[in-house]
Amino acid sequence: MSTTASTTPPIRTVMSPGRYVQGKGALARLGEFVAQIGTAPLIIADDFVWGIAEDQVSASFTAADLRIERVGFGRFATATAVDALVEKIKETGTDVVVAVGGGSAIDAAKSAGHLAGIRWVSVPTVASTDAPTSALAVIYTEEGEFVEYRFFPRNPDLVLIDTQFVANAPVAFLVAGIGDALATWLEARATAASNSTTMAGGQPTQTGTALAKLSWEIIHENAFSALDAVRDGVVTPALENLVEANTLLSGLGFESGGLAAAHAIHNGLTAAPQTHGLSHGQKVNIGSLTQLVLEGAPRAEIEDFIEFTTRVGLPTTLTEIGLTVEDETELRAIAELATVPTETIHNMPFAVTVDDVVSALKSIERLSRSVRADRGLAEPVKHVAKH
């Protein structure tokens, strides 16, 4: 997504969802907001999520005189899953698709809604990614390997997140969201430095860059208190702040501020089967640390990043994602996928090669272990891939 020569003057642009709703008990008002968008909704939710959300969603839809039509969903947003949803939309005469659940279900709904020519709504039940607000979807293979980004001309008409659901979910989801959102500022500042094209289709705006930085600041101020709130299953101001940072601010910041090396390296990591059991945010955190190494960030900044993310519970070594510095074949495959011509790593303000990425990935093992030892942090525990 780097800038290319053009005969027309460059533009700067910001994209955002039509409406963002967040708060404890917000799900009870879903029908009220969906009824302003369409009259024949189709709900996309896997069986587990539907078991938790069905009563509240159904009650809100009934109160708004909306039909209750639900279709299940698998693990990944694959091209096949999207095409199946398009057929279901056509069969049921749907005019708005409502995704309830995680990032993959939401991405599939956005992609299917776009192909079917209808409107779409994101209802994340966890704050594990910043995908819900964006006008793009990530498509994977059945095994979880990155395939492509799909871009849409508009964002969701509605993003609604009930913070009590976030508080009730395992804390690992919120940790993953922190990993995803922390990359937003690191990538936005790199994109601003290179004046590259953002996911919104223009050069970065001051607004997008500022929102990315605000997300970073709110996360650092609220993360630990918010994680404790989730461990206790309660909604607190710190949790509300963190959910907004993870979801809205990071979503706006990455889309209109720009992606760079961190997410490209995440996509590259999907080439290694060892990483398939990891969350999006865990892999992104490795990408963020690798980006800091690539850009020669100040040692103090890197050390602080390692300490903060280790204390949050995110991986900062190859060991923790099932790799080693000796895995030359896997590391090169990761680097090659991360540096394909269409990848966002080329938004960095300097050229990045396959060899650069391999070297940076190898370097984080010793670097992180050293910082963790100096600061009294836990030793890395090897991630064992589940097949």
Structure notes:
Residues 17-163 form the Alcohol dehydrogenase iron-type/glycerol dehydrogenase GldA domain. Glycerol binds at residues 130, 180, 263, 280. This is Glycerol dehydrogenase. Keywords: Metal-binding, NAD, Oxidoreductase, Zinc. The protein has two domains: 20-168, Rossmann fold (3-Layer(aba) Sandwich); 171-374, Dehydroquinate synthase-like - alpha domain (Dehydroquinate synthase-like, alpha domain), CATH 1.20.1090. 51% of the residues lie in helices and 10% in strands. By secondary structure, the protein is of the alpha/beta class. The chain has helices spanning 30-34, 47-63, 79-92, 103-116, 163-168, 171-194, 206-232, 237-257, 261-269, 280-294, 299-312, 328-338, 354-374; strands at residues 20-23, 41-44, 70-71, 96-101, 119-124, 136-140, 146-151, 158-162. The strands form two sheets. Strands 1-8-5-4-2-3 form a six-stranded parallel beta sheet. Strands 6-7 form a two-stranded antiparallel ribbon.
Summarize this, please?
This protein has helices at 30-34, 47-63, 79-92, 103-116, 163-168, 171-194, 206-232, 237-257, 261-269, 280-294, 299-312, 328-338, 354-374; strands at residues 20-23, 41-44, 70-71, 96-101, 119-124, 136-140, 146-151, 158-162. By secondary structure, the protein is of the alpha/beta class. The longest helix is centred in the middle third of the chain and has 27 residues, at 206-232.
